[in-house]
Amino acid sequence: MQKKVTVAVTGVNAMDNPGPGLGVARSLKLDNRLDVRVLGLAYDAMEPGIYVDCVIDKSFLAPYPTVNGKAWVERLLHIKRSCGLDFLIPNLDAELPVCIKYASVLAKNGIGLFIPTMRQFTLRSKDRLSEVAERIGVEIPQTRVVHTREQAIEAARDIGKRGAPVMVKGVLYKAILAISPSDVVSRFDELMAEWGGPVIIQELVTGDELNVVGLGDGEGGSLGLVGAKKLSVSSLGKIWTGVTVCNEPMMRAAEAFIREYRWCGPFELECIVRDGKVYLIEINPRFPAWVYFASGVGVNLPLRMLRRSLGMENPPLPEAEPGKMFVRYVEEIVTDMASLQSMICQGETA
């Protein structure tokens, strides 16, 4: 007999910058021992994932999580009361501090989580990458943390050739290529206005773009790892076609990351590999948008996380076979306007 469980997933936007939510939802539907009802948590009635009813059983609108996060949590508790909710999988970085803050409140109300601690979450900040890279045995591009235009220009001159090209990054989000000193200033201003300081100036490193998605058990052990190489990307740099790879130095680094930091929950390491060296570019403390690729090659990380949280035994961990490819594509969903009207007027699908 299948065990019934209701899981809410966020990040169900699936436009030019797709979230992980649909990939997570598709993965949760692949277990014949679990009857998973998936609830989509959206921030806009036009998020496409709301209407993909073959994987999202019901959707709700929620207020965007602010620093306080109280309204967001109250919405979750309302969903719990109205239709049941056993487990939450947050798929956006901005949600994690709120989940961490209110984890005990959610647990008391029967909503489970499998997420990093606040100390672990702060590791993903780009100004701490050098510390992480050293500890897990990989390289990092030359990096400077700056607070002013003058510091940005000076850092770019030291790192880039004649002050460019360099990568200009927000401390939490966004990375933009700057191709001239004046471009560095404009990119610095853009990121300061959007996200606040500090801003990171980083050496532009070219090579093979390799990523690894993983799941830590919180005790130093791995619940699964899959490496992938980007073959093509969208205009926003999002992976569109990829192939599974087993780059041993990168996979050892991912295992070291789990072991050294006793990581709890999903994560993604974004790397550049050149001349045998692995450069750590970014850490994402959640599932990536391509998580269903891992499930498709036999390493279903969302399900393994859910089973672990429910106290169920996970099957033996398979190895992802190198050379498997995935291609992202656009598909049209034909539905009824009643779904959109219900989201706008009632804040949930019928």
Question: Your description of this structure?
Answer:
The structure is a single chain. This protein has 350 residues and is an alpha+beta fold. It contains twelve helices and 14 strands. It folds into three domains: 3-114 and 332-346, 3-Layer(aba) Sandwich (Rossmann fold), CATH 3.40.50.20; 121-126 and 206-327, D-amino Acid Aminotransferase, Chain A, domain 1; 142-203, ATP-grasp fold, A domain (Dna Ligase, domain 1), CATH 3.30.1490. The protein has helices spanning 21-28, 70-83, 96-101, 103-108, 118-121, 129-136, 149-159, 181-195, 248-261, 291-296, 301-309, 337-346; strands at 3-9, 34-42, 58-61, 87-89, 143-146, 166-170, 175-178, 199-203, 208-217, 222-233, 239-245, 264-274, 277-284, 325-327. 42% of the residues are buried. The model has no long low-confidence stretch (mean pLDDT 93).
Net shape: globular
Helix-and-strand structural type: alpha+beta
Order of helices and strands: EHEEHEHHHHEHEEHEEEEHEEHHEH
Helix content: 25-40%
pLDDT averaged residue by residue? 93
Please provide the count of β strands: 14
